[in-house]
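Weekly structure sync - notes
Attendees: PM, LS, DV (DV joined late)
Agenda: review two folding runs queued last week.

Item 1: First target. Sequence and structure tokens pasted below for the record.
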Amino acid sequence: MSYKIIVTSESEKTFNQNLEYLSKEWNDNVTIQFIDRVDEVIQTIRENPLLFSLHNYETNVRKAIINKRIILYYRIIDDLVIELLSFWNTSRDPKDLKF
């Protein structure tokens, strides 16, 4: 079964922030690798959303590691829908992470 993916405004914003940083500080190849990895992880989530570890049991938030600096947080809404919450940069203060 393939789930529908909902992109929240926060996940769109944080994805773009990370993309902007990569394109400014690194070369195009690194940026493309990041995009490819995000696509790969989202496809895996779409096909098997329980594969990645549970971050918070109460809110049903899971986390998928994109690379050593970026974690994708998402939530399974029901049997058909997954909501992407944030592309969290691990250099940020974890106290700011709220779901």
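Item 2: Second target, run right after the first with the same settings.
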Amino acid sequence: MLKKIGVGLLVIIIFVVMLWFTSNNPGSVEVDLAFRTITSTIPIAFLFLFVMGWAFGLLCASVFILRLLNERRQLRRTLRHTESEVSSLRNLPLVDAD
């Protein structure tokens, strides 16, 4: 419940800051992409850059998560193998050293 309130409050704060930023920056900016020059308003350019940064962060996080999932799969396979080995060793008869 508290987490939902916090997320809602954060979304409202971000929205208010976005509106404030948009109203204070009505100008335009030229973005040179080396193959094309795009003219856009400052808030749209920031929004585009924000979305591109979010997508890049999501891609990086996905790579990290895939590595963790692969490591987890390998560890589970090793654990199953080790458990079967321990189980087979427990079933061996005891041999006296005498």
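Discussion on item 2: The helical segments are 2-24, 42-90.
Action: LS to circulate a short write-up before next sync.
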